[in-house]
Specification:
It is built from 15 helices and no strands. It is mainly α. Helix 10 packs antiparallel against helix 12.
Length: about 270
């Protein structure tokens, strides 16, 4: 995006932004290669050998574990909605309201993403030590508080502080090991997957995960834009982030934590 923002210049909004999206087909290919190269889990391999695979797993998981699907989706509210506000809505807000250059914002988000490359697996590792639910709930609390700090820094008008606002969620991880998004995203895959029985795990986790994209991730930038248009204050958006964090906090508290437990017998 940064490269084509430079290349396309004034034509970025007409065609420049499309090229990076088209090039992402390369990432799709890499992702598919990785997925096809990963071995099945021992639990699922045993189910295959015993011919205990569900023929209609989506229907079965909706019938047997609807609670887990709903809780998984709600638990992602604090991870999904703020992420798209911090990495997508910030461009409309930064360029349109704060009059900051698009390239400056791209560099700031890129810097935060580079550090996330390390802090996401670190958060997953820490969740193995203190528990997935504990890590997730700490991430939700931090997210709820950070929304107000984020927009306070953005509205300062200082370029240095605007950069810090985008980078701070990741930057704080170095000192406090509390990262609003990464603390939840790191343990999320295991936390959600372990909530479902082995026969229904892939379908159940997928339904909960993608449902969150519909109710949280997708509409978040639109809701943020609407809140700002109505209230003329970014703190209204921070309040929305806080609500999402509270929802996730409650949902995560209601989910079971299987960290360090052998779920093969119970959940095969």
């Amino acid at each position: 995006m940064l490269a084509f923002s430079q290349i396309a210049a004034d034509q970025f909004l007409s065609w420049g932004w499309r090229v990076p999206f088209l090039l992402s087909i390369i990432l799709v290919g890499i992702g598919l290669w990785i997925r096809l190269s990963i071995l099945e889990t021992p639990i699922f391999a045993r189910l295959v050998a015993e011919r205990r695979i569900e023929r209609t797993p989506i229907v079965e998981v909706i019938k047997r574990q609807p609670k887990e699907i709903i809780l998984s989706a709600l638990a992602r509210m604090a991870e999904q909605a703020p992420f798209y506000i911090f990495t997508a809505f910030v461009f409309a807000y930064g360029v349109g309201t704060l009059k900051v250059s698009r390239d400056f914002l791209l560099v700031a988000v890129l810097a935060a993403s580079v550090l996330s490359f390390f802090t996401i697996p670190l958060s997953g590792h820490l969740s193995d030590r203190i528990g997935r639910r504990n890590m997730y709930m700490l991430g939700a609390v931090t997210t709820g508080v950070f929304g107000f700090i984020y927009f306070a820094l953005l509205d300062s008008g200082s370029l240095a502080l605007i950069f810090l606002a985008i980078f701070l969620a990741i930057f704080l991880a170095i000192f406090l090991a509390l990262i609003p998004h990464d603390m939840m995203y790191g343990p999320q895959a295991a936390f959600i997957a372990e909530s479902f029985t082995g026969r229904l795990r892939y379908s159940g986790a997928s339904l909960g995960y993608q449902f969150a994209s519909v109710i949280a991730g997708g509409p978040a930038p639109l809701i943020a834009a609407w809140l700002f248009a109505v209230y003329h204050s970014a703190y209204a958006i921070a309040g929305y982030i806080l609500v999402c964090a509270i929802i996730s906090l409650v949902a995560a508290a209601l989910m079971k934590d299987y960290t360090g437990k052998d779920i093969a017998a119970e959940y095969a």
